[in-house]
Design brief:
Elements: H1 2-11, H2 14-27, E1 33-35, E2 38-44, E3 49-55, E4 61-67, H3 74-77, H4 80-86, H5 92-95, E5 109-111, E6 118-120, E7 124-128, E8 133-135, H6 137-146, H7 150-153, H8 156-160
Antiparallel strand pairs: 1-2, 2-3, 3-4, 4-7, 5-6, 7-8
């Protein structure tokens, strides 16, 4: 199922991905916000799973997923350096959208105890470069080292179910 949703996301034009993210945001009554010119939309199930989308004006996107029961729940470990490493390979300007930002229900912060810097936690880190979706290199490498399946352990499958990629979505 994870591979099917990944393929369906990849086949969906970014404007349609954004439309679905905005529709789900409205249905769940989560207020979209602007972050450095990007639009942030989010979903949560009220039980610890979430998807957070950032769409930039230049046609790129950042997607963070989180499953609180997963081995990728780095928030529970309170390890800033490991969380920061999951963003490896993502363009710096996209990572800046989640660095040193206020917390909210979907995005709690992990704090570097030495510098005070913060970054939003995420079990899964995915980004769109204007042409295709990619799993962040740091995220994939961490999953490889830990023997974890990136798409299922990150909550990707569950968290993106509400967006119905590969299906009709009239929301």
């Amino acid at each position: 199922m994870s591979d099917e949703i990944w393929a369906a996301l990849a086949a969906t034009p970014l404007e349609e991905v954004r439309r679905r993210a905005a529709a789900v945001d409205a249905i769940t009554e989560i207020t979209p916000i602007a972050v450095d010119g990007a639009e942030r939309f989010a979903w949560n199930d009220g039980g610890g799973q979430s998807a957070v989308w950032y769409f930039t004006p230049d046609g790129r996107a950042l997607l963070l997923t989180f499953d609180h029961e997963s081995d990728l729940n780095l928030y529970a470990e309170e390890d800033y350096s490991v969380q920061e490493a999951l963003y490896g390979g993502v363009p710096e300007d996209l990572v800046e959208l989640v660095r040193n930002r206020p917390e909210n229900y979907e995005s709690l912060n992990l704090t570097d105890q030495d510098t005070g810097a913060t970054i939003h936690y995420a079990g899964g880190v995915f980004w769109f470069d204007g042409e295709r979706w990619t799993q962040a290199e740091g995220f994939v490498e961490h999953c490889r080292r830990e023997g974890l399946d990136p798409l299922s352990e990150s909550g990707f499958t569950y968290c993106l179910g509400v967006y119905r990629f590969g299906e009709e979505f009239t929301g």
